[in-house]
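dumping this here before i forget
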Amino acid sequence: MAQALAESISSSETTATIIAFDPDRARLARFGAELPRFEALDGNKAVADQADIIFLSVKPQFVPDVYPDLRHTDKLVVSIAAGIPISRLQANLPHARIIRVMPNTPCLVGEMAAGYALGATAVGEDSRLVHRLLTAAGVAIQLDEPLLDTVTGLSASGPAFVARLIEAFIDAGVAGGLERDDARELTLATFSGTANLLAKRGLSPDELITMVSSKGGTTVAGRGVLEKSDYREVIEQTIQAATNRSRELGS
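structure:
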């Protein structure tokens, strides 16, 4: 995730230099190799001293290890560490301005869907700057922090759930006689095309369903099966389970 964000920011902020530290020097070298303007430093404190904005991009279990090196900073700290609430970050980084971000993996291809929340000491200019940096990688929406758990269930975990649906479509195509590669290509184009059509034409899902559904046609026949099932309940329960787990991790 850090790599994808860094690449997007480098592409949009053409004068910015990305500086970073990782105790794994080989991983740090690979990270920098993809960036046009990059400097590897010798510690987190050095990064905190030199950076204008600090991105806290470590796994949640390692966040406490980073606190001592950042405790002195009064800069903007943007955390993408899942499940770490702003209150905990602020308690350990008392002088920093905190913004917490919940990104998702389509950031890797510039199609991120992210939510972000401001800590009490973050200001409007911080929000505008982070929004600009995040939207270089996709969509970013400012929300109250409790809603980031819902973002986790919907957008951060969502790609796995959508991938399961895609897998089911591919398997159904194979069951109908298609070669798996052909079924995959058609399914991926159907999912991405549907999302783009909804977005670019400003259609509601129901409007698109009506557009595709000719009376007595194939879509209506298929809808007769889908819409009699409990698909809405299954999807709602799936996202709610992920949301609840996010709340548990942050408590």
